[in-house]
Amino acid sequence: MDSQDAVTTVFREVLNLSTVDPEVGFLDLGGHSLLAVQVIALLRERYKLRVPTLQFLENASASAVAASSQPLEGN
């Protein structure tokens, strides 16, 4: 699974949506800051991806989050 698929999957799960357009922002999809923290934690835990919180909140479409994500050190 690539990083965009991982982010889209987590967005769908956290926001309880059946589909997510990867170009639409997390906040526009109904997310808020507490859910954003949950998304970041799930990406780290499940997919071993590090997403900077500030970058997430500034530009939070699934495609932008995937582009700014990095594998955790040691993985």
From TrEMBL:
It comes from Rhizocola hellebori. It holds the Pfam family PP-binding. PROSITE patterns: CARRIER, PHOSPHOPANTETHEINE. InterPro entries: ACP-like_sf (IPR036736), PKS_PP-bd (IPR020806), PP-bd_ACP (IPR009081), Ppantetheine_attach_site (IPR006162). Residues 1-73 form the Carrier domain. Keywords: Phosphopantetheine, Phosphoprotein. One of its GO terms (molecular function) is phosphopantetheine binding. This is Carrier domain-containing protein.
